[in-house]
Amino acid sequence: MNIEMIRAAAERIRGHVVETPLLRSAFLDRVAGRRVWIKPECLQHTGSFKYRGGRAAVSALSDETRRRGVIAYSSGNHAQGVALAASEFGTPSVIVMPSDAPKMKIDNTRALGGEVVLYDRSTEDRDAIGSEIATARGLTLIRPFDEPEVIAGQGTAGLEIARQAAAAGIEKADVLVCCGGGGFASGIALALEAEAPGLRMRPVEPENFDDMIRSLAAGEIRRNATLTGSICDAIISPEPGQITFPILQRLAGPGIVVTDAEALHAVAHLFSRLKLVAEPGGAVAVAAALFHADEIAGEDVIVTISGGNVDPDVFITALSRYTV
Amino acid sequence: MNIEMIRAAAERIRGHVVETPLLRSAFLDRVAGRRVWIKPECLQHTGSFKYRGGRAAVSALSDETRRRGVIAYSSGNHAQGVALAASEFGTPSVIVMPSDAPKMKIDNTRALGGEVVLYDRSTEDRDAIGSEIATARGLTLIRPFDEPEVIAGQGTAGLEIARQAAAAGIEKADVLVCCGGGGFASGIALALEAEAPGLRMRPVEPENFDDMIRSLAAGEIRRNATLTGSICDAIISPEPGQITFPILQRLAGPGIVVTDAEALHAVAHLFSRLKLVAEPGGAVAVAAALFHADEIAGEDVIVTISGGNVDPDVFITALSRYTV
């Protein structure tokens, strides 16, 4: 896993991914007490950065392998990213999802061309089901984060940040990244190391689901105690990856933990101030910039929004609860 | 008013305006029956394209004139665009607003550096008040649309569309533009005439407030019967401008009229599919692409979103009423 893979991924996906702009608002600057530069990956195809990794991984396969198809386990953003990327290549994709996943996510994944295979979380073994289908049909598994080509794809957002920050005259700043299994965070960290050494990647996680930040502090992988109960579900994963964790041990700055309430409040700010729809998990880094300003130094901070696939009910809750 | 003024405005405002991307969604394509390319000016500074015209107009003044300050009449997006542009130059700005304007818009205009002067719609004469202040303080009036440098600024969005369409390989398409007084529409039409003659600007207006489309049909300026009662308030103006109307007589393709319900439905689509916050008036062109497909020809359609300054209540109504 190295910068050359990220550069190669950027070449392969150029013209297919949205080069998301860096956006600013004087109002957000005032709340944060510094200049806030927002990288809105909610505007990426399928509504999250996951399309970058999906497209990078599918495009890295040999023609022969790609023709047989790909498989992914996901109830969320990775599912849609892989399904769309596969469709664009005319590649079959099987997405294994729990049968109690939100109907809209199942429908969207199908609409993007994914063949959805449902399993019962309480009685069936996801890996056994997936593995049987993969073997029978010769499908290639695309893991959500612990997969070099996926990390390379996510890292292309870091190359864009490096270029955009240079154009804006930012030489030194923290880059706050919403962190689940660490694919987005480690890809961006590697890109910044090579292209913008004055920029430092710092992971942000929701309270009680800060496995990466606790693991980095402990120097070894720690699991989350539970995987449900956070409104930031889009970025919850059981534990850091075997590939992502060592990269972040080497490159990550101190992590920041935010509450669900702060994430929702950030969603309302992004609605009012930047006209962006963020999912709560996608807004944790913005929440860190706005409400944990004392944990950040410098005149500029760069902040990712990882995704915007939020149910209307949750979004309405954010707007009703927080007047911005 | 000519293309050279638009090119000059683009030079002056470069690096200050957001170059908004062209965004797509396979889901919107399906509803529209063709490829839909969205130019989201809700992501522009202050949440609407009006900042382009404000910045272009303020930057066109001589140092001496600019030092004295500017004045604008507006309860909406033009107010914020002018206030921010003036602040960036250290120029005083007076914004004359009705005292019953939404408190949030008054607060935002002040926060952006505007000196807000309130008047009572029922007992006071806005023009008399503004004119007295302007004369006493030597302020330059910046009209919302019937002002060459403002039209030039709005036209810079058209230059971007021409460039982005060429990069996407689109040679021939309609460009649907949300139309009030016609500043945005005429600026874009002039830019396309010069830079992308295969692209044709078509105005879109809300039902019962289609003064521009009726005027174009009649061959002379027609007023709206009323100015209140539309949810698309952001793009309602009394009648076409003296400068904008002849430009559109020469260059506009057939207009499209949409209902308030269609505009709200488009707001919900933009939330779900592109993670964008649009105001109903800002979504009329998207509504035309989605729900008036039979009035459009060709495989591609380019669509502007003019702004995203929507009250949470209205946005919640859109999400509650339309499941997308």
Describe the overall structure.
Two copies of one chain form a homodimer. Chain A has 324 residues and is α/β, with parallel strands linked by helices. Chain A has two domains: 3-49 and 147-321, Rossmann fold (3-Layer(aba) Sandwich); 51-141, Rossmann fold. The first copy, chain A, is 46% helix and 14% strand. Chain A has a five-stranded parallel sheet with strand order 1-9-6-7-8, sandwiched between helices. In chain A, strands 4-3-2-5 form a four-stranded parallel sheet, sandwiched between helices. In chain A, helix 5 links the parallel strand 2 and strand 3. In chain A, helix 5 (77-88) runs parallel beside helix 6 (103-111), helix 12 (260-274) crosses helix 13 (284-291) and helix 12 (260-274) crosses helix 14. Chain A is globular, with a radius of gyration of 18 Å. The A-B interface holds A 18-21, 23-27, 30, 40, 42-43, 45, 47, 84, 108, 111-112, 271-272, 274-278, 308-309, 312, 315-316, 319-320, 323 and B 18-21, 23-27, 30, 40, 42-43, 45, 47, 84, 108, 111-112, 271-272, 274-278, 308-309, 312, 315-316, 319-320, 323.
